[in-house]
Amino acid sequence: MSVEEGGEGRHLPGLPEDILASILSFLPWYDVLRLRIVCQKWNKLLQTTGFRRKWRGRDSHQAPLCFMSSAEFAKEHGISIYNPDNNRWQLCGMNFSPSFYTFTLEDGASFTATDVRVMGAAEGLMLLQVLLPPDLVSEYDERKNTHRARSMEYLLFVMNPVDVSFKKRVPLLPQLRQFDTSRPMGMVWNESSHSHRIIVHYHPQSPDYTFASEWDAHKISTFYSYDLQNNVWDQIAKWPRDRLEILQDPSLTEGGFFCLGSNPFSGLPHRFRVYSQDTPARDANGCSPTDSAESPSSSSVPFLVTDEKLHPSPPHPLYFPILFHRQKETLVAGGRIGSSWSDDEFPPLQVLQEFCVWKLSTPALAPDTSEEAEDDEKDSHVEGRIPKKEWVEIYRMPDHIVESLNGNRLYERFYCAVDRDFLCVASSRRNGAMFDMVNNSWSILPPHERECLSNTVVDGQDFILMMLDMQMLDLHLCEPRIDVIL
Question: Any idea which of 10-14, 202-206, 293-297, 348-352 has the lowest mean pLDDT?
Answer without folding.
Answer: 293-297
